[in-house]
Amino acid sequence: MLVLLAGVFGPWRALAHEPPEEMAEAAQDFLAALTPEQKSKATFPFADAERENWFFVPRARAGLPLNEMSASQHDLALALLRTGLSQRGYARAEAVMALEDVLKELEQGRGPRRDPGLYYVTIFGGPSPTASWAWRFEGHHLSFNFTIVNGSHIVFAPSFIGSNPGEVLNGPKKGLRVLGEEEDAGRALVTSLDEAQREIAVISATAPGEIITGNAKRIDPLAPAGLRAAQMSSAQRAQFLALVKLYIARFRPEIADATLSKITNAGFDKVCFAWAGGFAPGEKHYYRIQGPTFLVEFDDTQNQANHIHTVWRDFDGDFGRDLLREHYLSDHAH
């Protein structure tokens, strides 16, 4: 497993500080640059219910949007985002925001307001390298929710990235597929299965119209589970692990390493792959990856199967619930 980690996470750049310290410093720098009015928009108490009020559709949000920031404030907001994401993840986030201009051109005012400046930064609690606090970066097709517990643990769930169009068909960005790797790797895995394996993995001939968990604040494991990694050949298991890592690799290496360790400690053999819909490019399709601790959903059914939604959820740890519970119990015991 150490070899696998080195192979996937090794190329990422080294960071100068531990993630909680770097996040706290970036958030403090961002808040220090705001006016009192801006700061009142951008901040909430850590225990505020707004912290779990996440979504991925175009709508007004609580927080401070990029288009209400000065150039220097905008840079500090994106510097905060980079403290949570890998180079791969940050590039995806930038590409998703840039698709708002593509949609504006395609829809010509017929759809919702499209604006790459309508991505919001929201901070919950006081950023500190030793305390518990949280931050969110969210807008259309992006929702990154980071919770820092006791200054030592970071949780990134729920996490959402979507892409509309899934593939840009015209214009200067023609051929761009922001989530093409996730789509191709999922299809490659399901088409590698033999007939008996596919009987287990394919849960429906029709794909659901949306990710099943939506923007629920809490989720339970979904059923049926699909094909377990233990039921795959060694080559298929390697494909499956690489697919899981595509989602983990959106985040900075320290967070990715800890997440992969949690998955393997719970038993990678228990992780399941399920597929619904067609197998050919252009057909509506959906897959999910479910383990004892986490869930990934991928859905490409809207806009003639050219509109992708992907989400990562943690059954006990969304918004840091499990770690916060342990922390509060420990404090109470003392």
In short:
The chain is α+β, with helices and mostly antiparallel strands.
Describe this protein's structure.
This protein is α+β, with helices and mostly antiparallel strands. It has two domains: 11-165, no CATH class; 180-320, no CATH class. 38% of the residues lie in helices and 19% in strands. Helix 2 (19-32) runs antiparallel to helix 4. The longest helix is centred in the N-terminal third of the chain and has 21 residues, at 87-107. Mean pLDDT is 92; it is low at 1-16.
Q: What would you call the structural class?
A: alpha+beta
Terminal-residue CA separation = 37 Å
Give the tally of structural domains: 2
As a percent range, the share of helical residues equals 25-40%
Order of helices and strands: HHHEEHHEEEEEHHEEHHEEEHEH
Q: Using DSSP, what is the number of strands? A: 13
The global form is globular
Count of helix runs: 11
What are the segments in which pLDDT stays under 50 over at least 5 consecutive residues?
Answer: 1-16
**What is the residue-mean pLDDT, rounded to a whole number?**
92
